Each structure stands twice: as C-alpha cells, then as structure tokens.
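Fold it.
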Amino acid sequence: MRSLIVSALTLSVILVCMVAAVAAHQLPRGVLLEARTALAEGRVDAALVELESLVERFPDSPWVALWYGHAWRAKGDRRAAIDQYLRGLKLQPDNPELLIAVGDLQRDAGDLVRATDYYTRAVASAPSLAIAHRKAAAAEIERLRHGAAIGHLESYVKLVEDDLEALSEGLNVLGIEQYLNEDHDGAIATLERALSIDPNNGMAHFGLGMSLSDRSAEYDRALLHLRRSIELDSTNPTAHYIAGRILTAQGHLEEALEALKISLELSPNLADAHYRIALVYARLGDRETARSHQQRFQELAQLQDNLEAEETDIKQATDRDQFLFRYAATEALPSESLQEFRDAVAEILLAEPNNPGALTLSARGALVAGEIERGLEDIARALEIAPDQWESLYVNGMLLYQAARHEEARLSLQQALQANPLSSLVHGGLGNVLVALGETRQAVEEYLVAINFDPEQPAHYLNLAIAYQKLGETELEAEAMENYRRLLRQHP
C-alpha cells in the first residue's frame, strides 16, 4: 500500500520556474538556458562545461550553484553536487530549490529525517511552492507519519487547484492517507472530490471502495467503486479481495468465490484472502478445499508472526547498535560504560567474527579508549571485507589522525566523503585533520558544512572557533564560541 501511495504521489511531474526575489541574486535573462537545455537533453558534460564558465562569471549566484549541483548529480558525483548546493545555500540560505536539492540527496542516502528537515525548511521559506509540500509529504509517507503527510498534502492540493491532473493525484494520496490515519469520513469526502474531477480515476475508485467497505450500510456503494476500479485496473489483488469480503458478508457466495480466486491468482500469498475463501468453501460444503486454504492461511500467518518476531529482533539489535554508536562517538567514557560497550561488541563478534560492522564498532571503541593500534587492526580487517563502507573509512581516518598520520587520515576521510558526502561527522573529522596539516582555511569550510548538516552539535562550533582563532579572525571566533555555549546551555 505504501509503495502504491508513493508512486501515485510521483506521477505528477511539476516544472517549477523560480524567479530570484533579491536583486543581488538575479541573472541576465536566459543565461542558464543553454545549460538547462543540455541537461534536459542528457548532454551532461556539455552542461558542466557551460556551468563552469557561468560560475566564473557569476560566482555569487545561488542559481548557478543550484544548476551546477544538478549537473554534477546527473553526472553521478554526489560530493561535487552537495558542494555546489551548500555553496548556493551559503549565498542564499533560504533558497527553497537549494533546500529541496539537499533534501533529495539526503533522501537518496536513506536519511528521511534529515530530508524531511530540509523539505520543511523549503516549505517555511516558500509556503506557496507546491513542490516543497509534495516533497515533504512523500518523505513523511515513507516514514509512515500519516498526520504530518496529511498537513502537507492539504496545502499541496490548495496550491495546485488550477492544475486538474495534479489536483486529482494529490487528492488521491490525501484520501488514502486520511484512511490510513483512521479519518474515514475525511477520506470519503476527499476521494469523492477526486472522482468529481476525474470520474475514471481508478485509484480514487479503489480508495473510496476501501473506505466504504468498513461500513455495512455502504456495502453496495463500496462494491460499485471497487468494480469500477477493477475495470480500470484488473491487476489490483486487494480490490478483488475486498470485493470478495463484501460479497461473502452479503451471502453472494459464488460471486465472492470468483473474486477471491482472482485475488489469489494475482497474489498467492495474500493470507486474508486464503482465510476468507476457506470460509466460502466451507459454507458451500467443499470442506476439503476449505481445509487446504485454511492450512495455507495458518502457514502464512505463522510466517507473518515469524517476520514480526524478526522485526522485533532487528529493533533490539538496532537499539543495541544505537547504544554502541552513542558511546563510541563520545570523547570520554566512564569505565562502566566503556566496559558495557566492549561487552556488547564482543557479543556480536563472537557470533560473527568477520562482520565488518562489528569490527568497525570495535575500532570505534578503541578510538574512544585511546587504544589506537588495536583500533587500526580492527578497522583494517573491516576494510578488507568491505572497502567502500563510509563508516569504516571514517573511523579509519580518525584513528590515523590520532596516530598523527595526517596525510593518510585525509585520504581515508576524503574516500568516506565520496561514499557519503552528507555526513557531518566526516566533514568535522576532515576539518580536524586539515587543521593539523596547517590548512586551516579549508578546515573552516569543512566545519561550516558539518554545521549545515548538524546545526545542533556543539563540537562543530568549538572546532570552528579554534580554527578562527588560528586565523586571527576574532569576531568570527567569538560568534562560534557563543553558539557553542548556547548549545551547551540548551543541552547540558
């Protein structure tokens, strides 16, 4: 169901052309046309050449930075793309398209929380920008935060009222989110509005039929919409199943049997359909067939129970890993916490001695405890098994930094950023290495990127203040120290 909702949300392609509101950010008319055309036609290298020249001509334009970032992203270089997007945000921190671009990269990296933060900032910056609400809604749907998604979708449909296709699709998704949020009245009203715009909207018919199917007084209406949705898309097993469930309740057993058979042909492992069809066969007197479907239902139900148990185990493991990460990332550990951390890591390594993630955690613990040589041994084994894992490359870089092997540390951290250019940890670590190498100005840039990604981390501001002190920039040093103290007061 979630994938159905997300795919529907992305059906409408919205082309947004923003005009810079601040005169200092405006460009001569048409200056980006050649680069944008080249990108649209798939001529990425040509776009990069054109945009490189535009950067030289308009170094202070956030719009050139935006499209240069788009070109690098199309080229597959996420690090170069994020560098340009962040450069643009430095020039214009409230630029909604740049905020959305960074959010998209965070979403691609699997960090839906950070992605949502950037989309929400874009919404705050440009409340009338429909695409910002659409992006924020999609991220909230993936996080199964139906209430938050509904808020963005309600704003979205108001903003696209003149675009009937976008409005219809937005109402579809809004209606189903309302249903999933247990607002059935709202879902019904929304989906009826969608059908008033497009009577042949199969998804709206399905959503409306599903919403009405929970009310026995509305069974006939529900069937009407479900049958229409099946006419428009006969491959939806859930539509056939819900129709079969309603027909069974109404006593139309032969029709119910036909609908449930189709549902199982389309989705043989739909447990509820096996349960429902077993009831129908039993009422029709075919106990042997009923028994086979009941047995299959029980098997699938057991598999579901096992899956839920596995998810519980995964959650427990995740909680443990979060504990490990939290303590391993701490600069100083009480002895009892460090021992708890070591015991947890040892438990993992006992079961999986060649688990690169566990070896990386062990190396993190060694880093925190100051056992640098042991940490380097663990992380070397981890990188032999999984050489491209950014976490391992990060820990390796920080261990090398502590061992005063600064050039090697820089290389490892740069490799980590190639794998994940969105990590504030890596940017901050690279900043520390650059300070040690005497490249303090470059270190400042890394600290600023780290702050952009994680503005609530006091250590980034402290490092930035130290760097500004080395550069003799006392006002900026004082500002960074004030932010550091402010965050310490907020999170003692």
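The two ends are 43 Å apart (CA to CA).
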